[in-house]
């Protein structure tokens, strides 16, 4: 379910069945996965980790990854668009961290 869709960001509420995989794609955007309920396995070529309820994973670079739902999982998926990039290619993005 899409919660926010605007030029700067997209926020979606996602429900996944056990075993469902999310595979990376090439993007210059920052992606955040916030687990509301359930568990996910995060894997790259160099590392792997389990993330569970209340945990947040943010990817800022072009990292090839695979997320697999270890059980029924609900999460917020946020994509922050790199719309602040100017003609010179330098980013002027302002970032803020909010703790829930």
Label the CATH architecture.
Answer: Sandwich
The radius of gyration over CA amounts to 14 Å
CATH class, named Mainly Beta
* Major pleated sheet: 5 strands, antiparallel
Would you count the extended β strands for me?
Answer: 9
In the sheet with the most strands, the strands line up as 1-2-9-4-7
CATH topology group? Jelly Rolls
- Please state the overall shape, judged from the principal axes of the Cα atoms: globular
- Give the count of structural domains: 1
Q: Give start-end ranges of low-pLDDT stretches.
A: 83-100
- Count of alpha and pi helical runs: 0
Instruction: State the fourth-level CATH superfamily.
Output: Jelly Rolls
Q: Topology as H/E string?
A: EEEEEEEEE
Strand share of the residues? Answer: over 45%
Average pLDDT score: 81
Distance between the termini: 21 Å
Write the layout of secondary structure elements.
Layout: E1 2-5, E2 9-16, E3 21-23, E4 30-37, E5 39-43, E6 48-52, E7 56-59, E8 66-69, E9 73-80
Antiparallel strand pairs: 1-2, 2-9, 3-8, 4-7, 4-9, 5-6, 5-8
Task: Provide keyphrases for this structure.
globular, five-stranded antiparallel beta sheet, Jelly Rolls, mainly beta, 0% helix, 100 residues
């Amino acid at each position: 379910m899409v919660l926010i869709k605007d030029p700067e960001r997209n926020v979606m509420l996602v429900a996944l069945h056990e075993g469902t995989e999310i595979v990376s794609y090439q993007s210059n955007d920052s992606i955040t996965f916030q687990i509301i309920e359930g568990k996910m396995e995060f894997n790259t070529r160099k590392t792997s980790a389990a993330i569970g309820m209340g945990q947040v994973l943010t990817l800022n670079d072009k990292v090839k990854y695979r997320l697999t739902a270890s059980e029924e999982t609900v999460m917020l998926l946020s994509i922050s668009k790199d719309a602040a990039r100017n003609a010179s290619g330098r980013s002027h993005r302002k970032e803020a961290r909010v703790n829930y």
